[in-house]
Amino acid sequence: MYDSLKYRIPGNSIVTEKGAFLVHKNLEDFSGFVVSDFLKKNLFAFHSGTSVNESIDIKPPAVLSREEYLTNGDKFLREIKELDLGKAVLSRIKKVSIKSSAKDKLFEALCIKYPNAFVYEIISHTLGHWIGATPEKLIEGRNQDFETVALASTKSADDITEWNEKEVAEQDMVTRFIEDELNQLCISFSLQNRSELIAGPVKHLRTKFTSIRGNDAMQLIDVLHPTPAVSGSPRFEAIDLIKRFEYHDRLLYTGFLGLIEETVNVYVNLRCLQIIGNNAYLYLGGGYTKDSVVENEWDETENKAKTLMEVIENL
User: Beta 137-142 vs 43-48: how paired, if at all?
Assistant: First the structure.
């Protein structure tokens, strides 16, 4: 038996392969498709043509109601204030039913709907069934010349109001983090002006880093991931808080995935779902700061869900 992999790098053709996702202690000597969980505890490399020897039972993640989320969010926010954290990301799961016909068509539909996203489908005997369309580039480039992006803050694509102070500060936090990490490595880079990135029904604030003169893509990935966009700031204190308050294991959500070859295309795994039986479990996060309103963070996760929901509902 084999695992199945499909992916589409923006501007490229769809790639379909059969093989196996195998655990690697590190990915320094591997060339090909890779995937990691949130905290990089589990690294997997796809070996084309290799058969799978075992499978595991995939259990559904914990799903909180709106009321349960708001209660948990209130406690989460109080901890952020008491610990004086700049930001921490609290994620949740949205469960929706999905027809068999939608499962079969979702990957291709996402490729059409979001031409500028990295779209993938993993059907694995050990990782489960995952589909996503992520806009967030972690590392892209070749020949020691890479790019990355500081992407954060979310609102509806048709919202023409100015970004508020909390949203600008949240995105700036990610930008400063990347700047500091690259400077500590004495790596040169160019920084572009902040702009908006429209990703289907939502938009984000984005700052591009270009001409990153890194010697090793995996070194850059290891230093930058997870950024404050998916964890918080300070990073390790925020991760400790996340572990205490999230009722589910993030698994592949907010990990990284993509190609590490002569040309590197690696993305943060956002706007993704896990299919178990006749249900799709959407993984959704909201960035909390001291100025957050918990109800607004719930609304933000609902807006992010539209990226996938609008496609699922039309299949």
Answer: unpaired
Question: Are 85 and 232 a contacting pair, CB within 8 Å?
Answer: yes
Cβ atoms of 148 and 178 within 8 Å: the answer is yes
- DSSP reduced 3-state for 43: strand
Q: Measuring CA to CA, which residue among 156, 120, 114 is closest to residue 135?
A: 114
What size, in residues, is the chain? Answer: 315
* Continuous segment of H or E residues that includes residue 4: strand 3-8
The DSSP output letter for 173 is H
186-219 tens-digit pLDDT: 899 999 999 988 888 888 899 999 999 877 888 8
pLDDT digits over 18-38, tens only?
Answer: 999 999 988 777 889 999 999
Q: Which residue bears the tokens 């807006």?
A: 303
Q: The tokens of 178 are what?
A: 């990347």
Task: Please provide the CATH number assigned to the domain covering 3-51+62-312.
Answer: 3.60.120.10
Q: How far apart are CA 311 and CA 174, in angstroms?
A: 29
Other C-beta atoms lying within 10 Å of the C-beta of residue 315: 14
CA 120/CA 286 separation, integer angstroms: 23
**292 close to 74: Cβ distance less than 8 angstroms:** no
* Spatial separation of the C-alpha atoms in residues 41 and 234, rounded to whole Å: 20
Domain ranges, ordered by start, for the chain: 3-51+62-312
